[in-house]
Amino acid sequence: MDVSDVSKTARLLHQLFREVVLYVEVENIVHMVTDNAANYVIVDKLLMKEFPSIFWSPCAAHCINLILQDIGKLQLICPVVEHASGITKYIYNHYYPLYLMRKFTGGKK
User: Fold this and answer.
1) In contact, 29 and 3? CB cutoff 8 Å
2) Beta bridge pairs of residue 33
3) pLDDT at position 19, please?
4) Rounded distance, CA 40 to CA 45, Å?
5) Which of 92, 94, 69, 90 is nearest to 81 (CA)?
6) Whole-angstrom Cα distance, residue 3 to residue 17?
7) For 18-37, b where at least 16 C-beta lie within 10 A, e where not — what string?
8) φ, ψ at 77 (rounded to 5°)
């Protein structure tokens, strides 16, 4: 289902996830991984209450991203992040430095 244009309320998400669980059949689901925003946490608790065999956990990549964003806001780290961002923007906005970077990194970013 494409719900990209709809507000992701806990009520809507619960309805959608419940439909998926019933379609796939609860005995075929062991673990669900979702975003860890408040609305998803509510939904996941409701689903685990309704379907006790399903285990839920927040997305580790999302958690790490939030942690890194908080670290980047620290007074000691912020200037380093801003400087690195400036260097990255410069390289990607200029053809020759971008060519050199790709040449010496073997095409890796």
Assistant:
1) no
2) 57
3) 92
4) 9
5) 69
6) 12
7) eeebeeeeeeeeeebebebe
8) -90, -30
Is the Cα torsion angle 6, 38, 12, 65 positive or negative in sign? positive
Average pLDDT of the residues of the chain? 89
CB 31 within 8 A of CB 57: yes
Say how far apart CA 23 and CA 104 lie, in whole Å: 50
* Residue (of 35, 32, 42) closest to 10 by Cα position: 42
| Residue 84 pLDDT exceeds 90 | yes
Alpha-carbon distance of 44 to 47, in angstroms, equals 5
Contact criterion met (CB below 8 Å) for 10 and 43: yes
Both tokens assigned to 69 = 């964003």
Strand-pairing partners, residue 58, are: 34
